[in-house]
Amino acid sequence: MKSVNVNQNIIDLEYAVRGPIPQRAAILKQQGKQIIPCNIGNPQALGQKPITFYREVLSLLENPNLIIREKYISKNYIGDFDNISNYAVEISEYLLNNMETGLGGYTESKGYYFIRESIANFIDKRDNIDSSKSDLQSNPDNIFLTDGASEGAKAILELLISDKNDGIMIPIPQYPLYSATIRRCGGTQVNYYPDEDSDWTLNKDILVESFQKAKDNKINIKAIVVINPGNPTGAILDKSSIIQVIDFAEENDLAIIADEVYQENLYGSKFISFAKAIGDKSIPLFSLHSVSKGFYGECGQRGGYLEVRNPPPVSNSTLSFTELLFKVSSVNLCSNTIGQALVYLMVNPPQQGNDAFDNFTQEKQTILDDLFNKANIIRKSFEEMDGMECFGKIGSLYLFPRINKLPPKITDFEYCMTLLEETGLCVVNGSGFGQKPGTYHLRIAFLPSIESLKSVLPSWINFHNKFVNQ
Ligand SMILES: Cc1ncc(COP(=O)(O)O)c(C=O)c1O
C-alpha cells in the first residue's frame, strides 16, 4: 500500500500524562506487578465513588420508566426499596421536560439554552455579582457547553491561531493539553515561569520578560493561558497574581484563557475567578470549567463549558468571534447530552430542605477531606526525602515537588521510571509538563486510597534517599 504523509503537527505533539512511564506501568501491571497509579487525575478510575445524587438523576434520565416507578409504584406499593431521592426524581422530570430533543437527540449547537442560563446564574452567584449590574452579569448567549473543558480550550486556540508566528503564552509547568493544542494548530508556544520559590506566584516582570523575548523574535502574542488552581503545580493563585495577569493582558492587548476546572479543589483556600477579577474591564476572557474534577470526578462523562466575555473584534471576517465559535460548535453538532445534564447538576447542587441534600453534602465533604488528607500525607513524606521541596498551597489534585538533588546526568524521567520499576508507584516526570531549565520535578496525583499510599510511601522514601545519594 502506498505510504501517506501525515500531519507533522500531530507527529510532533506530546502528552506525558499518558506517555512512556504510564505505558511501562501498564506492561508491569500485565506482568502481575502491583502498580499505584498516581500519574493521572482520573478520580473514579482510582476508586472515588460517584456522587449518588448525580447517578440517580442520570439513571432516571436514561430510563424515564424508572421515574414512573419511583413516583407511583416504588414508594406507594413496594416500599422505598432503592432509596432514590424524591429530589432526584423531581430534577430528572424537570430536565426531561426541558430537554426538548430528548437525551438521544442532537441539541442546539451551544447546548441547551436552559442549561446555559443556569450556568450564567451559577457564575453570577459564585462571583457575588449584584443583580442590578447587568454589564457584569454572565450572558447565556456567550456560554458554550462542551465535551469537557479540553474541547473548549481547543476551540479557542484553533480560532486564535491563524499563523505560525501567532503566540500563546502558557505557564511552565503546564497541563500538556495547551502545548499539544498549540502545536496541533501550528502556532508558537511562549513560556512564562511562575515563581516556584514564592509558591508559584506571578508578577508583571515575569510576564513582561517572556512577552518581550517572544516579541523580539517576531512572535505575535494573542493570549495568555492561566490554570488556577494549577495543574501540575496544585498551586492556588493569590489576588495579587491574578490582578497582575489582568493588568499585563490589558496593557498588551491580550486575551486571557482561564482554565478553572479545579475551582472546587481548594481545601480551605479562596478561589478568585478571572471573570470576577476582570470586572468591567473589556479584556477578552475565555473561562473553562468541567465536571471532570472537583468532588464530582465525572471525567468519562465529558461535560464542561466555555464562557466568553468581551470577545475580540475579528479583522478578517464579517462574522464576530462568538459567531465563529458558534460555527465551529455547529460543525460538531452538539456536546453530549449526559455531559450537559451533569453540568446542569454541577451548577445546581441540592439545597437544604430537599431530601438529597444531606447525603450529597456528606459525600462531597468526605471526598474533599479525603483528598486533602492524602495530599498532606504525601507532602509530609517529602520531609523525609533528601532535597525534596514542594511549594504552594494545596489545590487541585496534584503535588509537584522539586527534586533538588539528583546524581549527575540523571533526569527526572530516569528517576520516575526507576521509581516505577522498584516500587510500583507511577508518577509523571516534571519534564512532561515543562520546567525551568536546570530544575527537576515530578507530579503525583493524590488520588489512590490512603491504604495504598501508606503502603508505598515508605518504599518511596527509601528509594529516593538511596537513588539521589548513589
Ligand atoms: C488544567 C486542566 N484543564 C483541562 C483538563 C481536561 O478537562 P476535561 O476532562 O474537562 O476535558 C484537565 C484534565 O486533567 C486539566 O488538568
CATH architecture of the largest domain: 3-Layer(aba) Sandwich
CATH H-level superfamily of the largest domain? Type I PLP-dependent aspartate aminotransferase-like (Major domain)
CATH topology of the largest domain: Aspartate Aminotransferase, domain 2
The number of helical runs is 16
What does the main sheet amount to?
A: 7 strands, mixed
- Form type: globular
Which small-molecule ligands are present, each listed once? pyridoxal-5'-phosphate
Question: So what's the CATH class of the largest domain?
Answer: Alpha Beta
Mean pLDDT over the residues: 91
The proportion of strand residues reads: 5-15%
Round the Cα radius of gyration to an integer and report it: 23 Å
* Count of the separate structural domains: 2
Number of strands: 14
Amount of helix: 40-55%
**Cα distance spanning the termini:** 51 Å
How do the helices and strands follow one another from N- to C-terminus? HHEHHHHEHEHEHEHEHEEHHHEEEHEEEH
Report on the architecture of this protein:
This protein is an alpha/beta fold and 470 residues long. It folds into 2 domains: 8-47 and 360-468, Aspartate Aminotransferase, domain 1 (Alpha-Beta Complex); 113-347, 3-Layer(aba) Sandwich (Aspartate Aminotransferase, domain 2), CATH 3.40.640.10. The protein is built from 16 helices and 14 strands. It has helices at 8-12, 20-30, 52-62, 65-78, 86-98, 113-126, 149-160, 177-184, 204-216, 239-251, 274-278, 321-331, 337-347, 357-382, 412-423, 450-468, and strands at residues 36-37, 143-146, 166-171, 188-192, 220-227, 255-259, 285-290, 304-309, 388-389, 398-399, 402-403, 425-426, 428-429, 442-445. Strands 2-8-7-6-5-3-4 form a 7-stranded mixed β-sheet, sandwiched between helices. Strands 10-14-13 form a 3-stranded antiparallel β-sheet, covered by helices on one side. Helix 2 (20-30) runs parallel beside helix 15 and helix 7 packs parallel to helix 8. The longest helix is centred in the C-terminal third of the chain and has 26 residues, at 357-382. It is globular. The N and C termini lie far apart (51 Å). The relative contact order is 0.16. Pyridoxal-5'-phosphate (PLP) binds next to helix 7. Pyridoxal-5'-phosphate (PLP) binds at residues 41, 148-150, 175, 177, 227, 231, 259, 261, 290, 292, 299, 304.
